[in-house]
Each structure stands twice: as structure tokens, then as C-alpha cells.
Amino acid sequence: MEPTPAGRRFAVVVLTAMNLLNYVDRYVPSSVKLLFQRDLGLNDAQTSLPLTAFVVVYMLASPVFGTLADRFPRRALIAAGVALWSLATGGAALATGFWSLLAARALVGVGEAAYATIAPSLISDLYPPERRNRILTIFYVAIPVGAALGFGLGGLIGGAAGWRAAFLACGLPGLVVAAMAFAIRDPGRGAFDKGPAARAIGWPEATRLLARNRQYVIAVAGYTAVTFAAGGMADWLAAYLGRHRDMDVAEAGSLVGIVTVCGGLGGTAVGGWLADRLRDRTRQPYLATSALSMLLATVFAVLTFTVSGKASIAVCLFFAQFFLWFYNGPINAIIANSVSSNLVARAFALSILAIHLLGDAISPPIIGAISDATGSLALAVSIVPVTMLVGALVWAWGWRRLPEEPSAVSH
């Protein structure tokens, strides 16, 4: 049965709540890094490997769930994924050493892969192409809010009751929203595709089609560079403030959390709105918005790591986060709109693989290794604005060179 307008809104609310908890659980380890580092006797490189283990498993499991989404009910797969990652986050509280912490965080990646691969394709089947940027902007607003809550709650709970309590408090609420997934009515695939129903295709053909899709390739290439930068900043910023700006765990976590939610929430909302406003004013408006905002984010990221004084850091970080998050709705709308319904889940699965394999799976340990080798975390984090700039230039090239942005296409 076709979902009612209220049913569509309910689905978006539930999926957005899941996305928020997704990022709460993802960034709790970064907020309490210094606490479990001391308790478990880890060096800098080891403290980032749990995040890397999560990302590696997440990116490898995503193509698997891209295939499963064609064979099993999507809401059941989403519910199972959310429940698994919530239990795994809480399970990290039981870690007794490096390997048990690593295993718990790796399981989080399996659960999040199920959700992150399938949810955007479900949203794409709920709304037509011209509305997807707006709806996906709402959906992705949850990322900075969730990341901020992960930092803020993790830092506050970790500082007051220890890092184990932080993992438990932030992980277990996900079981509630997992159960809510079963109330979502799936509209079926391809309701807004033009022409005959798209045929099912396998991974080899899907990969070839996506590799030839210049719109998709440029969007994901820039997304990869930006994810490298965002992952490195998310995992190391609180620790950087603790070492080089004399902040304690709760203070650094709260500052990063508050500024991230304010800047990220505003940036995601303004970026999605601006991209739609530019539709009749420039070619490739989604790439244009993403490229120009990322150039500004680069400038403010440089300032964040160079200024001193808490107020100056907070202001620069706010604007860095504000412009950093402009791309969220537009780039993911490009991914959804540039392919037909039989490719959407696989397009998101392959983008997840790419942005994490070459992005935030490697940036935190690279920064940690540079810090260990040079004795300077300040030097190590300088790669963050460099890769932001790379992402901006890739999207700018697509803005100026690609033909007009397409609506959803069929193959």
C-alpha cells in the first residue's frame, strides 16, 4: 500500500532519528579518547584504530547490504542494523584492552552499514527527484547534531562517570528506534522513475555503470577528500585542544560538541536551501554550492588550528563547521538523482566504500602516526585543511566542466 503523506513524514522522522544516533555512537570514542587511552595503556596510533576498525568494517559491509536490500525487506534490515550497532556501542564499555575495544567498534560498523546503505534509497523512493535535496538535507542535519551530542555527552558523562558509562549511555537508546523501523511503510522501488520499471542488475554491471557516470564520480571523489579531512578533525580535535590549548576532557568535548551542532546544523540547512535557490542561476548548482563552501571551510579550518584563546577557537571552529556541512544534502542528492532506482542502494554502498576506504578509515591513524613520529600533534593535524581544499577543487572542476545537472535517470 502506498504510504500516506503522514506515513512519509513518519518514515523521515524515524530514519533521521536513527541517523542522529548513528553519529552519536560514532564519535563517543573520540570524546573520551584520553580517558580510555590512559586506562588501557594505548599510544596515539592505537587510540585511533578502533575508529579505523569501525570504518573498515563499515565500508566492507556496505556493498553486502547493497545487495541484500534487493532481496530482503528494507525496514527489517535497517532495524537489525540499528539494534546491532547500539548493542556493540554499549558493549565497548566491557573492553579490557586494545583488542576487545577494537572488536566492539568493528561490530558497530556492521550495524551502521545496514542502515547507511539502505536508508537513503528508501527516502529516494518516498519522494520525487526535485524534493530529494530538501528531504535529504533534513535527514543529514542529524549528522552534525549527532556528532555534537557524541562529543558533548561523551565528554560530560566520561568526565563525571568514566568512559565506560559514556559508551553505555550513548549506545543503548538505539534499541528503541530500531523497533520503530517496523512501523515504516516501504513504498517499493522506482515509484518516481521515468519509463518502464528498471531491471535488477548485479554488482559487475552496476560498478561499470557508476564508473562511467561522471556526475557520480566527481561527487564521490570530492566527498572522499572531504571525508578524509572531517574524519581526522573529528577524531583528533578534542585531543588537540587538550594538549595544545590546555583544555580538560569535559571542556574540550563540550566546546567541540556545542560548536559542531550549531555550525553543522546551520550549515547543513543553509547549504541545502542555497543549492535549491541556485538551480536557475548556475550550472551544476549542487556542486557549485559544495565547492565554494568548502573553500571557505578550508580557510577557517586553518585558523582553528592556529589561533589561541578559547573564544577565538570557538568562532573559527564554528565557521569551519558551518561551511564544511553545506555539501551534505546537495552531494547526497546528486548520488540519488544521477542513477535510477535499481542503482540507488548500490550507488550509496559504493560511495560509502570509497569515502571511507580513502577517507576517514585512514586519516585518524595517519594523523596519530605522524604525531608519534614527530612528537607534534599540531603538525599532524595540518593535513586536515589540505584535504578540504582538494575536495573543494574537485567539486569546482565538476561545477565548471560537467553538463547541466540531471534529474533521476534510467538505464
Textual characterization of the structure:
The structure is a single chain. This protein is mainly α and 411 residues long. The chain has a single domain (5-401), classed as MFS general substrate transporter like domains (Growth Hormone, Chain: A, Up-down Bundle). The chain has 18 helices and no strands. The longest helix is centred in the middle third of the chain and has 33 residues, at 129-161. The model is unreliable at 407-411 (pLDDT under 50).
Q: How is this fold's topology laid out?
A:
Blueprint (H helix, E strand, L loop, with lengths): L4 H27 L1 H8 L3 H25 L5 H18 L6 H29 L2 H33 L1 H9 L2 H7 L22 H10 L1 H31 L4 H29 L7 H20 L5 H15 L3 H10 L3 H20 L2 H12 L2 H4 L2 H19 L10
Strand content: under 5%
What would you call the structural class?
mainly alpha
End-to-end Cα distance, whole Å, is 26 Å
CATH level 3 topology = Growth Hormone, Chain: A
What series of H and E elements makes up the topology? HHHHHHHHHHHHHHHHHH
User: Number of domains in the coordinates?
Assistant: 1
CATH class: Mainly Alpha
Characterize this entry briefly:
The chain is mostly helical and 411 residues long. It has helices at 5-31, 33-40, 44-68, 74-91, 98-126, 129-161, 163-171, 174-180, 203-212, 214-244, 249-277, 285-304, 310-324, 328-337, 341-360, 363-374, 377-380, 383-401.
Features:
mainly alpha; globular; single chain; 411 residues; Growth Hormone, Chain: A; disordered C terminus
